[in-house]
Fold this sequence. Notes:
Distance between the termini: 30 Å
Strand order of the largest sheet: 2-1-3-9-7-8
Mean pLDDT: 87
Strand content: over 45%
Number of domains: 2
Low-confidence stretches: none
Number of strands: 15
Order of helices and strands: EEHEEEEEEEEEEEEE
Radius of gyration: 19 Å
Amino acid sequence: MLRTLYRLAVNGTDRMISFGPNERSVYPLDAQLYYVPDALADELATLNRMINAGSTDHADAVGSLNGYFLDEVLGYPWSNSAPGLAQIPEGFNSATGDHAMMLPSESLSGYVPQALPAYGYPRYGNQAEVLLDLKAGGVTVESNAVAGGSVWRWFWNGMQFINHRDYGRQIQNAFYYLDPTGNLNNYNPNEAGDLYNPLLPAKS
Length: 204
């Protein structure tokens, strides 16, 4: 099982990494960064979210960080490189004193990145679409890597056949299975989206 690491904007000067929906629904989403395992195993490291004594800066570290205290465990990235993985950089802004996890190719104004001894599957930051297209016989099919490679658009003679207002509407394979108690609880591990949909109104 993998978990997604999100970078959130806690305030004007503190960028913080989180996973899961709770904090993500409270703070503005800055970017989606990496997939990392959610349980410790061989060849995996422990990635900690740290916080300073004044609670003004969150930082990420494998192990301890001088002047910071453990806030929570974020996940368990790989400790060595493998195909598809990228080394995770942690940026530091000396003007604001803020730490921020970054993507390998990312440039954040004022932040100087330094590689952590940790590797994850890189995501797509705040991009909504990274498209791969295929054209043949008057048909154009576009798949969106950000949405798990699901078919995002399908054109034939200029007509678009797919509604992709939110994740889950695309053409994709899907299967459901029983939970350990034998009940069908809508477990759908290969759906392109998730339960978090910013386009829908919040439920009261």
